[in-house]
């Protein structure tokens, strides 16, 4: 029985630095929480074109301290402390979720996490009390890594090793099937089956299946 849910929820969190206008494509890469001290440490990646918005973050009342700001290629890394109480990160930590990712864009926070089925409704209700939920997706989790048959795995390994997946191909299907001692049709059947399983798994994992 699957006892876990993967939840992806987008909300507008008023009274938080994330609600500042102009923030786009900001990603949280790490959280450290210190509930006993009343703050959490966040590390976010901000596009370099949003330097003015970083100043707004520094001045927001929910921010306790900016530890460090540094440029990394096309992005800026901001390391700071913000209030634990009233934060979504703090709320999710209190509910012992498995954090997957967080994005801030256009005044909205998108949180991706895993929790137990019996806690999902309570967590969603708690989030709705912190701000306006504008989108939510809940699906069974985990989707285990697909199991390839021995034939699918062998064909896929040979295809990769011998350059069939390169562009341009170093070996075509006819050559590779002869090397494996199988027909070209059998080779393509096993390869396409393996590719489909892996692609479906990946797209489902990042949440794109059924979104369009």
UniProtKB/TrEMBL annotation:
DNA-binding in keyword set: yes
Statement: the UniProt record of this protein carries the keyword Repeat: no
Domain HTH bat-type: 148-200
UniProt-recorded Gene Ontology molecular function terms: DNA binding
The organism's taxonomic lineage, starting at the top: Archaea, Thermoproteota, Thermoprotei, Sulfolobales, Sulfolobaceae
Protein's recorded name: HTH DNA-binding domain-containing protein
Any Pfam family: HTH_10
Alphabetic keyword roster: DNA-binding
Organism: Candidatus Aramenus sulfurataquae
